């Protein structure tokens, strides 16, 4: 092959080349931006859930007692525990602090909701779990307190 034909086959011009470059364009999005978006999105879901529980605590207790039907745990314990985990987990995930632990805690909440409360909402739960699994397996990313403190600890050594 000549140099011209090699170059044209690896980087074709015209419409085909434009389409190939356009398809690959999202690969230039920094992964840390994807991690940040995942954290903010999932934090918002659980923050809103906790806020709605706190806005009407008597209704929350009734839901845990009558609708959610969680086995093995008293509703008067489950309601504050779920609210605390949602509040704590959403704040930690948002700031990217102890984010893997927070993701694991919130995955537990998602699992309980999926198995015992609203199994028919599996698609929504799968979306939440996917975002949380991203944080659990890949971390909070560059724009996080986890990364900030990790740099400080490395700098000190």
Name the shape in a single word.
Answer: globular
* Number of individual domains: 1
Distance between the termini: 54 Å
Q: Helix and strand string, N-terminal first? A: HHHHHHHH
Assign a percent range to the helix content.
Answer: over 70%
Biggest β-sheet strands, sense, barrel: none
Outline the low-pLDDT stretches. 1-8
Averaged pLDDT, please?
A: 92
Structural class comes to: mainly alpha
DSSP E strands, number: 0
Number of helices: 8
Strand content: under 5%
> Nearest-angstrom radius of gyration?
22 Å
What's this model, at a glance?
The protein has 157 residues and is mainly α. The protein has helices at 3-10, 14-24, 31-55, 57-67, 75-95, 99-117, 122-138, 145-156. The protein is built from 8 helices and no strands.
Describe it for me?
It is a single chain. The chain has 157 residues and is an all-alpha fold. The chain has one domain (30-156). It is 79% helix and 0% strand. It has eight helices and no strands. The chain has helices at residues 3-10, 14-24, 31-55, 57-67, 75-95, 99-117, 122-138, 145-156. α3 crosses α7 (122-138). It is globular and about 65 Å long. The model is unreliable at 1-8 (pLDDT under 50).
């Amino acid at each position: 092959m000549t140099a011209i034909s090699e170059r044209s086959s690896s980087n074709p011009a015209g419409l085909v080349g434009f389409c190939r470059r356009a398809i690959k364009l999202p690969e230039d999005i920094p992964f840390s931006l994807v991690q940040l978006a995942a954290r903010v999105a999932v934090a918002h879901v659980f923050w809103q859930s906790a806020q709605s529980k706190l806005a009407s605590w008597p209704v929350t207790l009734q839901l845990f007692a009558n609708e959610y039907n969680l086995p093995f745990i008293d509703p008067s314990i489950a309601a504050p525990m779920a609210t605390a985990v949602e509040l704590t987990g959403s704040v930690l995930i948002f700031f990217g602090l102890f984010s893997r632990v927070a993701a694991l805690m919130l995955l537990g909440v998602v699992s309980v909701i999926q198995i015992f409360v609203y199994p028919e909402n599996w698609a929504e739960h799968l979306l939440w779990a996917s975002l949380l699994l991203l944080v659990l397996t890949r971390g909070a990313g560059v724009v996080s307190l986890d990364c900030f403190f990790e740099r400080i600890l490395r700098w000190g050594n």
